[in-house]
Design goal:
Shape of chain A: globular
Shape of chain B: globular
Order of helices and strands of chain A: EEEHEHEHEHHEEEHEHEHEHH
Structural class of chain B: alpha/beta
Oligomer: heterodimer
Structural class of chain A: alpha/beta
Number of helices of chain A: 10
Strand content of chain A: 25-35%
Largest interface: A-B, 27 and 35 residues
Radius of gyration of chain A: 17 Å
Number of helices of chain B: 6
Chain lengths: 251, 195
């Protein structure tokens, strides 16, 4: 049985890990490589690094950083943020990324998913989706939640899978930053409708939140940021608690 | 000196990074003379087995790999190329391990690709010195080698039990990625370096 995964997410701006609340109000929390090394030693199963730099300069800094991350850590890591072309993906693969995540650019041009997947394999392509519930309809957003689209979450997730996505990373914008639990029912439905793994993101505030999304929510992996960055929930204790609750995790 | 065979079969940089973390010297090469001169050889590989096999053949390295007498480690698709044949393509492979490579059948408890951390058992080789059955390693694959007399570690994905590692004489192979498997993977690579 494949173990359920615990994934710290690191938002990176100019080489530093930052954390915002509801995608606004950033605060620096540490060096990207040092934090990755620490998390991998603590038992994180995978890492996600998101480049939130908005400038060309920031993008170049990030590619150089990915090389240092690949040299320093010995677990798989995904990089994302601003990937808009197959060339962007190739550059990050060459720098040593195990997977890339595409978000806004894939909604603008869904063939981006198929083009990257057919060249580098589905295992390399994570499709990240940010959505919020509007009058009962889960609606996708782009540009870090700033722009609303008319794309519906479940149909988009199915299309992404058909186009060759290897995993879906869904963030509920309604839950992100609240520390009040994940959108469990949405993950359960995504897992029912898809055959590829689903990563839950947005809302982790406690061990119980993570336990619930991995059991009732049936997610394959739980991603979180602040609860790890600020040391609220140390990963070794989290994994012990999940194992005690009967969940198959790597210790 | 460790030779990592460079034959355009996906991201081979992470294997080099892992060796560097262990303080081992390595070079990426497709030069037969350099491969023959190396103390140990690693055959990495991700992606499609038939394409990887064609790529190895195009560099005239198929015959060479089979004749190596120093320790050789195939990783993921690199290991599959050392098996008898693969359904992916399909393609004939090098025939070092007496195993047939086939595709997983999808099931609710066995998503394909088999991706993530899974436990290995029935460990039976110096490659696993110091490790216990139940250790977790990182897999990313849709095709797997079946069980055979060369099996030195097993893993279960859904109902399917398969070879997580193989050995025949000086040839070793892991279906998982030791270079991405944290401290367990580092121990396996260290054991390989110590052979």
């Amino acid at each position: 049985m494949v173990a359920k995964r615990i994934i710290p997410c690191l938002d990176v701006k100019d080489g530093q890990v930052v954390k915002g609340i509801n995608f606004e109000g950033l605060r620096e929390v540490g060096d990207a490589v040092d934090m990755g090394v620490k998390y991998s030693r603590d038992g994180a199963d995978e890492l996600v690094y998101l480049d939130i730099s908005a400038t060309q300069e920031g993008r170049r800094t990030f590619a150089a950083l990915v090389e240092r991350i690949a040299q320093g850590i010995d677990i798989p890591f995904t990089v994302g943020g601003g990937i808009g072309s197959i060339e962007d993906a190739a550059r990050l693969l060459d720098a040593g990324a195990d997977k890339i995540s595409v978000n806004s650019a894939a909604i603008a041009d869904p063939t981006l998913i198929s083009r990257i997947a057919s060249k580098y394999g589905s295992q390399f392509v994570v499709v990240a989706i940010d959505a919020k519930c509007i009058e009962g309809r889960w609606t996708c957003t782009t540009h870090g939640g700033k722009r609303l689209t008319d794309v519906e979450l479940f149909s988009w997730a199915r299309e992404a899978q058909e186009r060759g996505a290897g995993e879906i990373l869904f963030t509920s914008m309604d839950h992100d930053g609240t520390c009040a639990g994940y959108a469990d029912d949405v993950y359960a439905r995504l897992t029912d409708e898809l055959t590829i793994p689903v990563i839950a993101s947005g809302g982790a505030g406690s061990v119980e939140d993570i336990r619930r999304v991995l059991t009732e929510g049936r997610a394959d992996a739980a991603l979180a940021a602040s609860i790890f960055h600020y040391g609220q929930i140390p990963i070794p204790q989290l994994k012990q608690a999940l194992r005690a609750a009967g969940i198959n995790v790597r210790i | 000196m460790i030779a990592i065979i460079d034959y355009d079969a996906g991201n081979i940089r992470s294997v080099g990074n892992a060796l560097q973390r262990l303080g081992a010297e390595y070079e990426l090469t497709a030069d037969p003379a350099r491969i023959l001169a190396a103390d140990k050889v690693i055959l990495p590989g991700v992606g499609n087995a038939a394409e990887a096999m064609a790529s190895l053949e195009a560099r005239g390295l198929c015959g060479l790999v089979k004749t190596l007498r120093r320790p050789v480690l195939g990783i993921c698709v690199g290991m599959q190329l050392m098996c008898r044949d693969s359904e992916e393509g399909p393609t004939q492979c090098l025939g070092i391990f007496d195993a047939h490579v086939r595709r997983f059948t999808e099931a609710p408890d066995a998503k394909v690709p088999h991706m993530g951390w899974n436990a290995i058992g029935n460990l039976d080789s110096k490659l696993f010195k110091g490790l216990d059955g139940g250790s977790f390693v990182y897999f990313v694959h849709s095709y797997f080698p079946g069980l055979c007399p060369d099996t030195i570690a097993t893993c279960r994905h859904g109902e399917q039990l398969f070879s997580a590692a193989l050995k025949y004489e000086n040839f070793y192979g892991t279906q998982f990625h030791p270079e991405k498997s944290g401290s367990v993977g580092a121990a396996i690579l260290q054991n390989f370096l110590a052979l």
